[in-house]
Amino acid sequence: MKIDTIIFDLGGVLVDWSPEYVFLKEFDGDRKKMKWFFDNICTSSWNEEQDGGKLMRIATQERIKLFPKHEKLIRMFYGRWEEMLKNEIPGTVEILNKLKKNNYKLIALTNWSAETFPVAIRKFEFLKSFEAIVVSGEIKMLKPFKEIYNYTINKYKLNPNKCVFIDDRLSNVVGAIECGIHGIQFESPEKLIVNLKNIGVEI
After folding, report:
1. CA–CA separation, 36 and 43 (whole Å)
2. Is there a contact between 136 and 142 (Cβ–Cβ < 8 Å)?
């Protein structure tokens, strides 16, 4: 079937976001110490709880109770979150614009806290290109679990066989494929163009 809908992840695909932009300076450029902090204190799984709908202030308080010696750094994670949100990824935004010109339906599907997503809306003009944006923190569902893909399919009356989902995390791509959606793991804008053309998308 011909693809008519392109579903984009945001962070790492269209948006450059990384805690390193804040914490590398705090650790005086010591990546080993920073990695230990992210592996043990403000972990990716902890951050994903907020992407799933947990309030940041509660998550912060709970983490400080567990690791009181690291209170300053823990508060910094959401206190300086906006500094972690850098620029759009230009090559992918160009692809998005071309797809819009070619009349593909464009949907964003992102693991993102409902509390911080308004910052992205204010910052990135290209988000207006999407017909719909599904934010995990707003609906309390997360990728790569099937419910969030099925929610998107049903809410926007999509035929999964006519959709392709693009994400930088392989587990999220696999989750989409398991729901009948074509999947592409994002590596670079150049590779994305090749992968889209290979499944018949006009770009």
Report:
1. 9
2. yes
Is the pLDDT score of 1 beyond 90?
no
Contact 8, 126 (CB under 8 A): no
**Per-residue pLDDT tens digits for 40-54:** 999 999 999 999 999
Token output for 153 = 């399919």
Which pTM was predicted?
Answer: 0.95
5-16+86-198 carries CATH number 3.40.50.1000: yes
State both tokens at 75: 């508060």
Q: Hey, what are 158's tokens?
A: 């999509």
Q: Where are the domains of the chain?
A: 5-16+86-198, 18-84
Six-digit token pair at 124?
Answer: 């990135």
Pairing of the two strands 132-135 and 5-8: unpaired
The per-residue pLDDT for range 65-118, each reduced to its tens digit, is 999 999 999 999 999 999 999 999 999 999 999 999 999 999 999 999 999 999
State CA 69 to chain mean position distance. Answer: 30
Q: State phi, psi for 42 to the nearest 5 degrees.
A: -90, 80
Backbone angles phi, psi at 4, to 5 degrees: -125, -10
